C-alpha cells in the first residue's frame, strides 16, 4: 500500500494555497531551496514568504543540493519539517540533522544497483530514503525494478518522472510517491487541473 504522497517544486502562493485547501491534500510539499538550475527554484525572500503559512497537516520539505553552512544558517528558522539532501555524505548528513534538529530525507540518485545499496550508509541517520533519477531538475526516469532489493520496512520515497497514471502501479508498494514534472503544463508551471487529478486519484487508492 502506498504510504504517502509528495508534490515537489511548488513556487507560487496560488498553487500552494490550492494544495493546502484541497479536500485530499498530499502528505508532503517540497520547495527547491538552493538548486538554481531548476526552473522550480525559489529565491530566499520569496521562499520565506511562501512557506510562512498554516501548513495544516502537510509537512514542508526544503530540497537542498549539498548545502553549505551559510545557507543552512539562513534557512534554519523557516517553516520546514524536513531537509531533503542530495549529494551529502552520511557524516555531513548526521551533522546537519543534529545541529538543526530537523528530520532528514536522503536523496539517492539511481542508475544501477550500486546506487541503490548506498541507502545502507544512512539507515541510522535519515528518516526517509528517497530514490530518484540522475536527472535532478530534468524529471528523468530510472528502472524502479532496481528497488526490489530494498527491504519493506525501510521508510522510503520514490521519484523519477512518475506520471499521474502510474500511481495505480504502486498501490501494492510501500513507497511514498513523489511527483513534480508530471504536474506541470507545457510552460513548466504547476497545473492546478493536473494536481486536482492526482489528489483525487490518490484519495481513491
Summarize the helices and strands and which ones pair or pack.
Elements: E1 4-8, H1 13-20, E2 28-32, H2 44-50, E3 59-65, H3 69-75, E4 82-86, H4 90-100, E5 103-109, H5 113-116, E6 128-132, E7 156-158, E8 175-179, H6 192-204
Parallel strand pairs: 1-2, 1-8, 2-3, 3-4, 4-5, 5-6, 6-7, 7-8
Element order, helices and strands?
EHEHEHEHEHEEEH
CATH arch. level architecture = Alpha-Beta Barrel
Broad structural category: alpha/beta
User: What is the count of helical runs?
Assistant: 6
Alpha-carbon distance between the two ends: 8 Å
**How much helix is in the residues?**
10-25%
The total beta strand count reads 8
Q: What's the CATH topology label? A: TIM Barrel
In what range is the share of β-strand residues?
Answer: 15-25%
> How many separate domains?
1
**Overall pLDDT metric:** 94
Overall CATH class:
Alpha Beta
Largest sheet features: 8 strands, parallel, barrel
Q: In terms of per-residue confidence, which ranges show pLDDT below 50 for 5 or more consecutive residues? A: none
Approximate shape: globular
Rg of Cα set: 16 Å
Strand order within the widest beta sheet: 1-2-3-4-5-6-7-8
CATH superfamily: Aldolase class I
Amino acid at each position: 500500500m502506498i504510504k504517502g504522497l509528495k508534490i515537489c517544486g511548488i513556487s507560487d502562493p496560488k498553487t500552494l494555497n490550492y494544495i493546502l485547501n484541497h479536500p485530499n491534500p498530499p502528505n508532503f510539499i517540497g520547495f527547491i531551496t538552493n538548486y538554481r538550475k531548476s526552473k522550480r527554484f525559489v529565491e530566499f525572500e520569496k521562499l520565506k514568504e511562501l512557506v510562512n503559512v498554516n501548513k495544516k497537516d502537510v509537512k514542508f520539505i526544503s530540497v537542498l543540493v549539498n548545502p553549505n553552512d551559510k545557507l543552512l544558517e539562513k534557512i534554519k528558522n523557516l517553516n520546514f519539517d524536513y531537509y531533503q539532501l542530495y549529494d551529502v555524505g552520511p557524516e555531513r548528513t548526521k551533522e546537519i540533522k543534529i545541529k538543526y534538529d530537523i528530520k532528514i530525507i536522503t536523496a539517492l540518485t539511481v542508475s544501477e544497483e550500486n546506487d541503490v545499496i548506498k541507502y545502507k550508509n544512512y539507515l541510522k541517520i535519515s528518516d526517509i530514503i528517497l530514490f530518484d533519477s540522475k536527472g535532478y531538475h530534468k524529471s528523468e526516469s530510472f528502472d524502479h525494478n532496481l528497488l526490489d532489493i530494498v527491504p519493506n520496512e525501510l521508510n522510503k520515497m520514490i521519484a523519477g518522472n512518475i506520471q499521474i497514471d502510474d500511481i495505480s502501479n504502486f498501490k501494492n508498494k510501500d513507497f511514498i510517491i513523489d511527483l513534480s514534472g508530471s504536474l506541470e503544463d507545457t510552460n513548466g508551471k504547476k497545473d492546478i487541473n493536473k494536481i486536482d487529478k492526482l489528489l483525487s486519484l490518490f484519495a481513491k487508492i
